[in-house]
Predict the structure.
Amino acid sequence: MMSELWLSKIKPNDMVIVQHRSRETIGTVAKITPTGIIKLTDGSQFTSGGRERGVDVWGVRWLHELTDGKRAEFEHRDLANWVSKIDWSKCSTDQLRRIKAITEEGRGDG
């Protein structure tokens, strides 16, 4: 069973991972009630054990700790997604050459 020690230390404005099946998003803690209910800024509520309240077992979401490693994974995914949506036809040939050089440097192909 996963360690829930981190859950006992969270506070408002902390960022957490919200997992629903294989999908993960980042949420922000809005409030912790006196009874231990964790409320996120999107209005969702979780038990002190990290399980979403009021949802059947098939739709339940869980809270997980947002570690530095996971934060880096999210940033990488978001940047890759952003780059995939660029309209490269609007770039000049010189800009595309510089982008190519940067990406080849990053891959070690250059």
Remarks:
- The CA atoms of residues 10 and 92 lie 48 Å apart.
- Residues 68-84 form the longest helix (17 residues).
- The chain has a mean pLDDT of 90.
- Residues 5-107 form one domain.
